[in-house]
Prior knowledge:
With 186 residues, the protein is mainly beta. 4% of the residues lie in helices and 54% in strands. 17% of the residues are buried.
Amino acid sequence: MISAGDFRKGVTFEYESAVYTIVDFQHVKPGKGAAFVRTKMKNVMTGAVLERTWNPTEKIQEAVIETKNMTYSYTDGELYYFMDQEFNLIPLNYDQVEDALKYIKENDPVVVKFFKGVAFSVDCENFVVLRVTQAEPSVKGNTATNATKEAILETGAKIQVPMFVNEGELIRVDTRTGEYMERVKG
């Protein structure tokens, strides 16, 4: 059991027969009345976001989430297949892999999260190196300002990059924010 006063970002717990993870929280101590914890929590199975206030002493059942290192194998159009170290393939649907899909390609390592043996989400590495497949050509002198342009990566993701980044170049992307980090020598 965990008390609501111990909530932090990323804490996973069971509530009303569903599993939630804390997205945002705030401990509030008003001038009058009792303290409370305001939370924004996300259902890990459906992705629905719920806001709720808790009494800090309220006890909640902590959820045990298993993680497994896997490799993205392929897609057949409707399902996305991931392989573990024992060469077992696990099919997942688009809703379960949606966030990671923008930054993974075949044979990339991922972490798949399970609750009671059922996979519910896929996390890719925090930093990935991807090739720019479409971008406006750079013009000499465009390195002096912080201006950006849209680029499309080999996975289909669209991100903002500095004006000096050209089509065909490799770049490092922070998958948590979707931001350009740096060019990579290929």
